[in-house]
Amino acid sequence: MLGDSLARSFRSLVADMRNAILLGEVPEVPVLGQADGKLVLNYPLGDSAVLVAEPIGTGVIDRSNWGDVHRVKLLRILDKEKVLA
Questions:
Q1: Could you report the per-residue pLDDT of 6-41, keeping only the tens digit for each?
Q2: Domain membership of residue 19 as a residue range
Q3: Which tens digits make up the pLDDT trace of 49-66?
Q4: Which candidate, 4, 43, 67, 71, has a CA 20 to 30 Å from the CA of 20?
Q5: What is residue 27's DSSP assignment?
Q6: Strand partners, 82
Q7: How far apart, in Å, are the Cα atoms of 18 and each of 3, 15, 73, 76, 84?
Q8: How far apart are alpha carbons 23 and 30 in whole angstroms?
């Protein structure tokens, strides 16, 4: 459904997230955004797609401490604002 290149990028990013102890250790740098009043991390995938993820932890997670979070919830994959998965 994602195509070979996009699927490969997705699997690589998820592997990096699993290997990192903290989100700030993931080599890919996300673009920070807001969705439904929560901080979301938009990780680039390929040329125009992004993986949208939500950092999960106790207390308030904001733009200053998201990198210290241990867990992440994968929300969706967007390509030019169109939901792919």
A1: 889 999 999 999 999 999 999 999 999 998 889 999
A2: 4-83
A3: 999 999 998 888 999 999
A4: 4
A5: S
A6: 79
A7: 22, 5, 12, 17, 22
A8: 10
* Long-range residue pairs from 59-63, CB within 8 A, at least 24 positions apart, any chain: 63/32, 63/39
* 42 touches 81 (CB < 8 A): no
The four Cα atoms 48, 4, 83, 57 give a dihedral, to 10 degrees, of -90
Cβ burial 33-60 (10 Å sphere, 16+ → b, else e):
eeeeeebbbbbebeeebbbbbbbeeeee
Quickly tell me which residue has 């080599």 as its tokens.
27
Written as six digits, the tokens of 48 are: 């125009």
Amino acid making up residue 85: A
Work out how many domains the chain is built from and give that number. 1
